[in-house]
Write the structure tokens for this entry.
Amino acid sequence: DIKKKLSIQSNASKGPPSPKLPFFIGVAGGTASGKTTVCNLINTQLHDQRIVLINQDSFYHSLSDKILQKVNDYNFDHPEAFDTELMLSTMEKLKHGQVVNIPNYDINSRKRVEPPRQVHPADIIVLEGILVLHDSRVRDLLNMKIFVDEDSDIRLARRIQRHTIERGRNIQNVLDQYCRFVKPSFEDFVLPTKKYADIIIPGGGDNDVAIDLIMQNIRTKLGQHDLCKIYPNIFIIFSTFQI
Ligand code: ADP
Ligand code: C5P
């Protein structure tokens, strides 16, 4: 019997380990809901892993000068504002361990600028943005889907503060954009993706209990993920030796 058990172990360790696939986490939610704050907490707490944060904003279409002349009529909160095909192919490459170039989007000029950010494969890839759960092909790549939920008034207050004080924009302009595009698109496209989330965090980065549970879950999933990918037979070995 012990010979049989040892042969299972040696067979399992003979073949080369399959390459380790990165663990993909998607963090969606409305504007100023606390997505970046949650991602930064995940990043800080997983400091012992190779982790890369990617913002969906990087995949905004670069606007032509003609469109820029009427930029106040442009909806930055519509799914078509993003180059989703590029985001998908970039994520697929990362999933297969390839180095990728992430576009460098300049929020002030609303254009892509050079050089792009070169990103190497990592253990964990966190994709953050208002609409990262919108496209089913992107969703299918994600191992964990999070939706950060925050009261709309709080989000609007934060957005006004960010866009006026931090970005120097005119308050009337910020409110017009919010009423014409941000709020309706949130209701039409962002909020409906909440149903795809594995985890909904009310209160964003302030929700210590939710963040702790997520971290525990990520660590458990990472353990299972690594073991299954590297040594598909490892659970057989463990269970055999426990008999
Ligand atoms: P998002 O990435 O969803 O746009 P951020 O995490 O960047 O949101 O947060 C938006 C703004 O609100 C930032 O200025 C951030 O510092 C602030 N903020 C985020 N979470 C909280 C919180 N729980 N309490 C107070 N301010 C917060
Ligand atoms: O970080 P946050 O989730 O707020 O980023 C998304 C928001 O950025 C969108 O609601 C969009 O209206 C805004 N945006 C903008 N101008 C751009 C690009 C995005 O106001 N050029």
Q: What stands out?
A: The chain has nine helices and seven strands. The chain has one domain: 23-231.
